[in-house]
Structures are given as structure tokens and as C-alpha cells.
Amino acid sequence: MKKRIGSLLLILALCFTLLPTAAFAEEAPSFGGGTGTQEDPWLIASQADLIALAEFLNSGNAATFDTENAGVGNCHGYYFKQTADIDLTGVTWEPIGYSGSYYFAGNYDGGGHSITNAVSTGKVDSNGCATAGIFGWVAFGSVKNLHVKNANSVATGQNNYSYVGGIAGVCYGSSIINCSVVNSFLESKRNSNNNCAGSIVGYSTGGTFEKCAAENNQVKTMAYGGGFVGEVDDDPDYGAGTSTFTNCYTANCSVSSKTDDVQGVSLVGGFVGEMTDSTLTVNNCYVYRAMLSTEGTAVPGIKATGVFAGHLWGDSSIVDTNCFFGACGTTENAGTASEKTEEEFRNGTVAGLLGEAFAQVGDYPKINGPADYSSVDAAIAKANALNKNSYQDFSAVEKAIADVVRDKNITEQSKVDAMAKAIEDAIAALVKKPSSSSSSRPSYSITTPDKTENGSVNISSTSAKRGSIVTITVTPDAGYVLDELTVTDKNGKDVALTKKSDTEYTFVMPAGKVEITPSFVKQAEEPSRVFVDVKTGDYFYDAVQWAVGKGITNGTSAETFSPEAPCTRAQIVTFLWRAAGSPVVNYAMDLSDVAGDAYYAEAVRWALSEGITTGTSADQLSPDATCTREQAVTFLWRAAGSPAVSGESAFEDVGADAYYARAVAWAAQNGVTNGISQTLFGSGNDCTRAQIVTFLYRAQQGK
Predict the structure, then answer these.
(1) Domain range summary for the chain, segments of one domain joined by +
(2) Which numeric CATH code is attached to 82-99+111-361?
(3) pLDDT tens-digit profile of 477-494?
(4) Coil, strand or helix at 42
(5) How far apart are the two ends of the chain, measured CA to CA in Å?
(6) Which has the higher per-residue pLDDT, 202 or 623?
(7) How far apart are CA 226 and CA 164, in angstroms?
(8) pTM, entire model
(9) Are the C-beta atoms of 444 and 466 separated by less than 8 Å?
(10) How far apart are CA 291 and CA 398, in angstroms?
(11) DSSP-assigned beta bridge partners for residue 195
């Protein structure tokens, strides 16, 4: 079973020995500036610079760049620094350094910036090995301070290996420090064993990982999958040393493996999928709320899951200190780590253990990088576009800009947002200087009726000059709405109105007086939706009326709600999605039983992205299957953010170790459900349409 990449690593070593020692036959791109030294790194300031770096490596032009005359080449000893966030929307991304010959050996500092929306189908080398990630191969180099968001990377090997990671497909004798990958889809394909996919890297031999985080990612493979790294292979024959992991974690990551080869392997772990001939040193590393699944492998293949490592091959072992593996999957090969509680994750204890690079933001720590100044920059750009000489006093805007301090981190985001607001408020308060031409123009009167019935009208001014913008605000009395609003000039002709909102209108003042006339009418009452099978005295009556009024459901026909009909899995995620405001999310969904044009498709995409459900298997949701009562309250609990609960439920049919135990306890403690009796919750019972809208109504109303 053991996968070997020895041939590729031998190719890599051979390339090292055959490279010229320091012949600068090619000229490096200018990038965004710099000379490539540690003191003056090459600057990656834009999308074009990042693409140029990938082309530089993948073309082989970087092979002669080696400051230490070690024959390693490929920018060995050279330094790069990213100076801005980079969005790769619209780009088909090829990884930086994609093979054992064309690899990245330099030092890349992301500067705390992000690379977002990278979409990659991978790149295949001459040996049929495919890689995908921001980097393909990182060998004898380093990547630090880089944050990858919303990536979609899929690689398919052609009769050879396939490696996919958010940062890099392969990490060989390199370091990955202070990096994160969030909200990304990462998949390695090939109908054989040699597939590795992980949130940070797909495959590591001799890698050093410090202060890295993986959050809300979906990892899929046909062999080895990990929430952090797909496979660690530190075979001494490869000569890259041993991999170490310090102060790293994964949170809310889904990892699945499915192979079509009956003799293949399906191995997944919350942190690492497979360890091959490795003694793994792990200190202060945590797995939180991982979702693991394997399928498609039969004897003599191997299938295994583990909260930390899916499988240990050969002489592999884990040396761990102070690690929290979380509640997920089975516990094979989990080691003897001590657990931290969910509360310790939420209250900052774990963030404190991880060190100063992390800050507590929300339910789990975040890489403590710089705050987001995009709103400040937008406000400054807005101010700079103004002609300050056109305003009576521009000093407040200038002061607000001068007060901007650019050293805040994510824990101080509110201070940065306040800076942006101060600039925007100062702009809004500007008063234009009167022009000499306008001051000489006459003003004309604006009149309104002395009294209006069933409402009132206010105007921004009782007189105005020709060409001025006049604002009208109408306020209907309770139970009334505006019927008609007219503005007529001195000749009795209508003046054009611009509707800003239901209560605000504007017009351009003509050369002469105008008269404003509003009229109000009684608001028609909207009758409640009446279903023949929903009676006033039914326990679910209020919930049904609420759900229909909010657009969560319209019933099963114009006259029926079908309260006793079982609620399907597709229906419940649709109800939850609509209750959440029908958000549109950028999340890769690959489920064989959810068509793209199904009414529930976007709801399922949202539910997967929020961790509300992971489906019934790696590629299926079972949308038409009946939702049970325990599934319903679990979905509701997750949609509410999986709040912590104290104590256990008192229901006899809810075991303390059941996956839905905390959800049931939360539902009972918050009045969402009282069970089917004082002692029974109704585990295993179908959840009816009446029950689910009632659960949702009570949860939304805080009852």
C-alpha cells in the first residue's frame, strides 16, 4: 500500500546537482520593485506581479538564480515581499513552482496580506504529477505571513501523483509560518492511491509549520486527506528531515476521501490524513469541529479516520504536547492528548496557548494580522476626489484623514472602522460655498397646503433658486399611505419628481413658484393566509402564519399546509436559509444528488458553507429523505452558531454521547421543544412540517 514519491525526489536531487552554480543567464522580472535581497526584497504589489512570479518559476527562468552557489537555484536565497491584498478573480491560476524541476526555493513574505479567489485546475508536469495551490512545490524555501481566502483548487494527476493545498501542494524541507487558509475548496483527483489534499499543504516531507490556521475549508481526495496536511512522509531516504507542527489548528473543516479503486486507500484525519515512516512532533496543535468521512474502498484496501491522524504507516508515531483533538469521527490513532473544552476555545484560552500571533475573534482564534483598512482607503479616495476650494471649511476632513493610524491589528478593527466613519461624517458635513452667479439669481417660493388630511408634508426649504434640488418628506398617519404627490409650476404644469424612498422625493426647482400637493388614503389590510388544515387553536397556528408572512414557506398548495406531512432534508435547509435572509455564498458544492437548478440548491450550498450539514456522504445530501427530530434540532442549533449549553437533557431517549445531545439540551433549555412527553424527546421520529416551522418560530422569537 505504501505510496512512494522516491522517483520524483530523486529527480529533484538530480536537478540540484545539474544546475549551474550561479550563472545569471536570465533576467528576473522587475516585479513591483526591489532587488531580491533580504534587505531589499522583490515586491509583489499586484495581480500582475504575482502572475509574473509564477511564470518566472514555471518557465525555468529562475533556475539560475542562487545567491549561495549551492546549485539549488529557483530563487534559492532570494526574498519576496507582498505589499497589498491581491484578488485573483478572473484568473486561471497556475501554482508558483509546479514540479521537482520547477519549484520555489525562495523566501516569500506575505506581509500579513491576503490572496483571494484563486481558481486553479492545477498544473501537470512531465511525469504526470499534478499540483495545485498558491505554490505548487516549495523546496528548501519558506512562506510566511500569507493568508489565502476563497480558493478553489482542483488537481488531477495523469498516471502519477496529485497534491493540493491552500498554501502549497508540496512542502519539501521548507517552512510555512504564520499562514492561514479559510473558506476554500481543495480537491485531489486520481483513480489510485497517490492523492494528497490538505488545507495548508497536500504533502510534506521535512516541513516546519508554526502558527498556522485552517478554517471553514472543504477538503476532498481519492486517498489521503487532512484538515491541515494530507500526508506527512518523513522517510529518512528522502533526506529532508522530519516535519514539526507548533501552535497550529484547524476549525470547521470538512475532510472526505472516496476512491474508485477497490484496492486503494481512503484515509482522513482532522489534522493529517496519513503518516508514512514519520515521527511526528506536535506541540500546541488543535482540531476543532472536524467533519470526516471515507468511502469507496474495500478489502484489501484500507479505510480509516482519526480525530488527529487518519492512519499511521510503518514505524510512524506521534509525539504530542497539550493538543486538543476535538469531537469528530472515530478515535483511531488519536494519541494520548489532553482535551481543551469548547468553552476554552471560545473564551480565549486556546488563543493564549497559541501565542501572540493569534487573537480571539469569535468562536475560535484568528491569525493576528493587520486590521482591514479598505473602508478607510475608500473614504480617503472619496475625500481626495473633492475640490476643497468648493467648500466653506474643509479642515474637518483633513483632520480626520490626518488622524488615521495604520498600525492596528484585527483585534482593533472597530477603531479602524471608526476612523473611516470619521472621514465619511466630515465629508457629509461639508457646506459648499455659494457661487457668485447663483447668489445673484432670485429665489422662488415653495408652498404646501395649510392642512393635509391623514398625513403631513415637509420641505427642505420654503424658497429656492432655479436649478436647486428640493427635498420633500411625506409622513402618512398610522393606517394610511401616500396616494398621490404632485408639484406644479406657476403655469399649472407638473414638475418631475424623483423618488428616493417611500417617504422621500426630490425635484429640480424651476424658474418660478411651485405648489406641492399630497394626498393620503387608508392602507388596505392584507388578509392572513388561510389554510384549510391549519386551525386557530392548533399549536402550530402562529408559527405557520409567521413562516408564511416571512416567505419561509407557502404551503403545499394554495389551500393546504400539510402540517402532519414529514419534512424532508431539502425542505428544512431551505426553511433555515430563507429565515437567514436567503444569503448567496461563494462555496464549492459537488453533490451528485443536488442539481444546480433545484429549488433548494442555493440553500444547500449555504448550509454546507455554514457547517449546518455535511450531507449523508461525501457527495450526497439525500434531499428527499425525511428529516428526523434529532436532525432538525441539530440543524437549528448549528444555524444558531452551536451555542454552548450547560448540563444535559432530561430525556431518556437521548444518550449523553449522542451527536445531537447538546442540540437537544439547547432546544429544551430555550423552549424550542419540550419533547413528545416529559421523559421522551422522540429520537428517531420523523419531523413533521408543523413541528419544524414551530421549532424555527420559537428559535427565531427567542421563546
Answers:
(1) 82-99+111-361, 374-428, 436-522, 541-701
(2) 2.160.20
(3) 888 888 899 999 999 999
(4) strand
(5) 55
(6) 202
(7) 11
(8) 0.57
(9) yes
(10) 51
(11) 162
